[in-house]
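Let's study a protein:

===
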Amino acid sequence: MTSPRAVQSEQNLPQRSLLLGMIGWIVYDWATNSFPTIVETFLFASYFTGEVAPSETVGTTWWGLTLGITGLLIAVAAPLLGALLDQLGRRKPWIAVLTSVTVVAVALMWFIEPEPGYALPALLLLAVGTFSLQLALVLYNAMLPALAPPEKTGRWSGWGWCAGYAGGLACLAVALFVFVLPEGRWLGLDPGRSEHIRATLPMTAVWLLLFTLPLLWLTPDAPSSGKPLGRAARDALGQLRDSFRALRRYQHIVRFLIARLFYVEGLTTVFIFGGVYARGTFGMDAAEILAFGIGMNIAAGLGALAFSWIDDWIGGKRTVTISLVGLMVPGTALLLVQSTLWFWVFALVLGVFVGPAQAGSRSYLARVAPEKLHNQLFGLYAFSGRAVAFLGPLLVGGLTHLTQSQRIGMSAVVGLIFLGFLVWLTVPREDQVAAE
């Protein structure tokens, strides 16, 4: 969704400005990973299912349904917004507004008390925060091709993911040692009302707001096109139509997008339900879930960092292939183990391969997309990441409800990654695409 005009404008900036711009871009990944880490996965999710919802099973079902419906709305809105911004030009004002909506939603989660009557407001805030942040991330990801040269796309993409996991880790550490373990007594919080848990949510809102500023201050933006909004909207719809038509000529990219549609949904669902699964199946409390989250983020960050150079060496195709195998094997083991120790072992092994799968996908498309279709295909890339975002949560929530078993419910995650892997095997390597 980066226009050729934007690419030319940004790449012609002085190297120091581009470097500062990339640093600001990476810091936004550090900022935004606080939301899925604290809210969607390791803290608010387990708090909702364990203390707000009528029961953990019901809470898991409601949580999955809410994120599923939200994901469907994101899948519809993301390509429309991306195409519209292609026509309007500037992205950062929209990123600022969308991120601010998420900041407000997270801050308001402080008022969600441990009673079933607060379940609906909690789910509404979750939906609003998720929707707005995911749209902001669509625009954020589209900035990469204009900032990083092709030969360094893999490492910058990987460094971004690494920074995200590091940011999630740091935010979790603050939550654990400042609020959860001391039970908020130094602030006069009431543990009986879970205020030491709820206080981590305004903290996360401040975190997200603070670390969004470097992107807004340092990272260059595309210039405004000067188009009126009505004309830009009409042109955006035409662009989307052309994007789908163009895919008929590039079947390898179609297969890539279909494969990514499934395995990214599996990855997303892992993090959405990781804390819920740890609490419901292995009996972890809030402090243990936070420690688990810290371990997962360390593993994921190290994996993303290591593979950031490997990606530029062996290519995105091989990087993603290795990563998907590295996800399926420990993912299957996590459904079978009974010991908390083995849960930790296999979860951390799985975490190593999460970042490379995501970063390798982004770098693969940046290398194989024809230049004249780069903007449109990047828009569809964003669409493929959310097109079935309802599927994972609905499958996990539905299977959990039908079988009353979180283990069976979470088996949907491995199934989604496996489906993506089968399609991925038909995707050619970058050098094979160039030969075509």
Remarks:
- The radius of gyration is 21 Å.
- The chain has one domain: 4-435.
